[in-house]
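Researcher: I'd like a structural prediction for the single chain below. Treat it as a standalone chain; there are no partners to consider.
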Amino acid sequence: MRRTALLVSAALLTGLLPLASAGAATGAEEPPPVPVDRFEGEVPFASQPAEGIFTWGGDSDDPPKLELAARDDAPEGDKVLSGTYDISGYGGFTHDFAANEPGHDWSAHKGIRFWWDGKNSGKRVNFEIKDGGANGEASELWTTSFTDEWTGWHQVEIPFTDFAYRTDYQPVGGIDQNLGLTEMWGYALTLPTGTPGTFAMDGVELYGKADPALTTKVLTGASVYPVKEGGTAGVRISVATTGSAPLAGPVTVAYESAGGSAGAGTDYTPVKGEFTFPAGTASGATHTVSVPTLKDKAAEPAETIPLKLTVTGAKAPAETPQVVIDAHGLPYLDARLPVKRRVADLLSRMSLEEKAGQMTQAERNAVGTGGDIAAYDLGSLLSGGGSTPTPNTAAAWAKMIDGFQLRAQATRFQIPLIYGVDAVHGHNNLVGATVLPHNIGIGATRDPGTAEKAGAVTAAEVRATGIPWDFAPCLCVTRDERWGRSYESFGEDPALVKQMETVVQGLQGARDGKDLDRDDKVLATAKHFVGDGGTAYGSSTTGSYTIDQGVTKVTRQELEAVHLAPFQEAVDRGIGTVMPSYSSLDIIGDDEGPVKMHADAAMINGVLKDRMGFDGFVISDWQAIDQLPGDYASDVRTSVNAGLDMIMVPTAYKDFRTTLVDEVKAGRISEPRIDDAVSRILTQKFKLGLFEKPYADTSGAAAIGSAGHRAVARTAAAESQVLLKNAGGVLPLKKSQKVYVAGSNADDIGNQTGGWTVTWQGSSGKITDGTTVLEGMKKAAPGATISYSKDASAPTDGYDVGVVVVGETPYAEGIGDVGNGNDLELTPADQAAVDKVCGAMKCAVLIVSGRPQLIGDRLGDIDALVASWLPGTEGDGVADVLYGAKPFTGQLPVTWPKSQAQLPINVGDTAYDPQFPFGWGLTTLRTPPGGGTLTLKALALAAAAAQKAGSAEAGRAVVGKARLLVQQKVGQDITPAVAEPFADADHLLLSGRYADAVAKLTEAYRAA
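Model: Treating it as a single chain, here is the predicted structure.
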């Protein structure tokens, strides 16, 4: 589902008849075929943005092997495209036009055809074309298939009318979901899986005369027309042509109200008639059919009135529009009643099938235009990472979600959808949104206020696009930097994670949920329950992952203290939803072995819901129940009985809903369990105010990416910078200095924002709006000489100081696991840049990454070292501390290792010898106090007093002074005897034990 741009486009070959000329033949009886691909070598094997043929697949073995082979029996020319394949997941090939070419006009033709060398295998081959959009990688995918059921060469003809819009996957989301054929980008073939095979094809071309139904269409303004009882609905019917040309001939539309759940003559006045759009009518002309409804005194659920359309001279609408008389007079609709009573009333009216629909969450692309929302009573939709509307704007998001909500109005009780999205560091799927530091950076700030403000900015921008639900925050306690999700954690210490959970209030508002209906708040999700940050390296069984989705093996005491503690805090803060982890839990001593969290009833029902008192609902992770042992019915039964209330089944929503109903009818899932789940879901929908306001409130849209929001992100970025070393006071820089900037991450907004930015995995380059570190430096010192050489190849003479910004490129989840094509070393190019710059001048090295990078072998040559984490879109915040506009105040949220062999390494370990300990962070805010042990004794007394008085502010200030004193004495001579008590002191500080923290710092001071 998350694969990058796949399928394909056709290229018009040099020397062939240009596709655009095909339009001239429209009036002919049968236009001549137009070649698309001859496979004679004129189109290379290449990839975007260049024109060419390229392969793709689910893993490294899935892409087919292709060649242009000479064959005596070639149907056209001398060569054919031939290939071999052995595909376990998915694989195929694409022919894309160059991205900088205009799309081609195929609208004059009936379809596309090609020669296929059949093996009579009986296998189906999927064939796709790309329509509209900016280029082949930002277009709609339309699909069909053919069956290999002959031997030898056969010409396969596919009329364009056979192609259907792909609902299971779209690389950029829907554009208009109409096959326009005027801007085509090519074709692709998905080859059969399961057994090795060979293929050959030749002579791709357009054929035949266009079907008039493809160039002229009748459309309706909406699929659903809600109206209050007694009101009149106006159904807008329009005509549209390819290229917006006037109608070539008349188009007649006959209409009749027929069928549906509303009664003709009692609930509405029947309508029947006919109208004609004459030849020459402008494309876009509209006619409105009025459907009057009648009012009675009865309280009723919603009732439907389909308006059947019969079209002559054009293609009819894809579906029949429905007028819906709104539900009215029922207690659950009364906003004055308590939520509990509204839930009970609605639940008592619902069928088992409707309840099962509420427990089903589908991905937006899977439901296509949305007809299945009402057909299956779906309760929720989501956008997976990078699943966005086109264009990816705030207005397009709101329009898309409103369209889906409109569909839900066609259900009996008009229960609104709850739409969810992974906004894990701002509204990160939206281009132009404010992207904040990832959680690892927020943890480095040690500032609960900053965490809360970050949540508030995220909530405001997300809700302004019509989305009421955020799959955040991640409350994982990261215990191994090899984990590809390390940056989603606030840190390795549960006390730090708990301290940062103010983000929940930033997202949701008040703990009792009374703010959830505000236009700047969203329902939050605590994830991933429980232990996802503690999985053992090498324990994952998911593809090539090494640690993500693996097994967390802990004692019950460690489970409680480390992994469960943050979730109790979240429940106490009123968290609305919880998402279980893909990982498994193996509790030492219980003899049960690893249990997948989505099947762990003892933890979900027993601990989370019963013991902790969680009263929200539990939402599964993406297709996670498919990882449970057993058949699909077992997956559904086990997960729901374990306490899952809503299941994220991106594409399998029909199967899930049917299976869930069957399991209840068979008695394998109890009806009370279903009622509990649906009650929990409905409660949150009522709290969010969705029944009263299902559609997007875009009044806050102007604040998306605003200066005010970016100021919050800028402050967070500045506070997240951790100064690990600062020999000779290299930092802060002076505006009078000539600065030489180098490194791969100095001027790359994509690398700076990391994974989960615009797309699931994120990507390098200019992917959204923001300021890079280099741009921020130039803005901070406008008159200074600041030169940039990414690879440090430019001469280094004549500079006062160098700033080398290095680190990681984006990744997410198990794709980023160390050992899955990743490590913790700087790239050779970054190493070379550090060596050259730091060998030529005083230098500061900034590491932009989601986790610590191994730098020890170069540490002696580096004057200043900064852990910049993934600071988001506001590089100005990094520049603020580099130039001293703000002080360095950040502290390490995780231990910085010396080598990979030490991993995992965490505060509290008995053998603890890091490069930099947990909590380390120099400051340019104030000078350390003098006085040595005498000062520490005085600080110990002050800490004891603060602890006794329960004064967190005074306690943190006292411990902070002691920490600075210790760091000054230690310098870079961080021995195990220093590191262990120093890290322990920070844990004690986070736990509110200020006197004990100063005692540990005193121990570290004496060991230095």
